[in-house]
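$ ./design --mode recover --in tokens.txt
reading tokens...
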């Protein structure tokens, strides 16, 4: 069963890797054995690990890629899988994001990320006590 603290650590690690443009850290967050998928805002679904990682490398190497600051993360745990719903502050707006994780080889790994523009984002607040398990 996925532990809530490990889930949130994995989710934070994903955003840390992106914020610091650390491709090795990003590669470490994503599952290696399970199928993965990523849908960047405005992109078609990427459904191959090599495609997903190539997209992250391109984004992180682009000096014009926006900084992202996640907030209002809420965890939903279902045994050996879980997802986190959060909002991502980006220049000029907010994205709603879902990050889906599984347990693989004894660690919590990302298998799906999707972010989309959010028209009416919530205010930033502490949702630690609102997480569902």
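writing sequence...
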């Amino acid at each position: 069963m996925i532990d809530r603290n490990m889930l949130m650590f994995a989710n934070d690690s994903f955003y840390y890797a992106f914020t610091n443009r650390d491709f090795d850290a990003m590669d470490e967050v994503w599952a290696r054995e399970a199928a993965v998928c990523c849908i960047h805002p405005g992109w078609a679904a990427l459904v191959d690990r090599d495609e997903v990682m190539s997209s992250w490398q391109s984004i992180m190497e682009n000096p014009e890629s926006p900084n992202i600051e996640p907030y209002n993360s809420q965890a939903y745990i279902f045994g050996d899988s879980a997802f986190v719903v959060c909002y991502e502050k980006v220049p000029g707006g907010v994205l709603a994001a879902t990050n889906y994780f599984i347990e693989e080889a004894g660690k919590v790994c990302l298998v799906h990320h999707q972010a989309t523009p959010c028209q009416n984002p919530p205010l930033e607040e502490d949702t630690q006590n609102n997480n569902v398990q």
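exit 0
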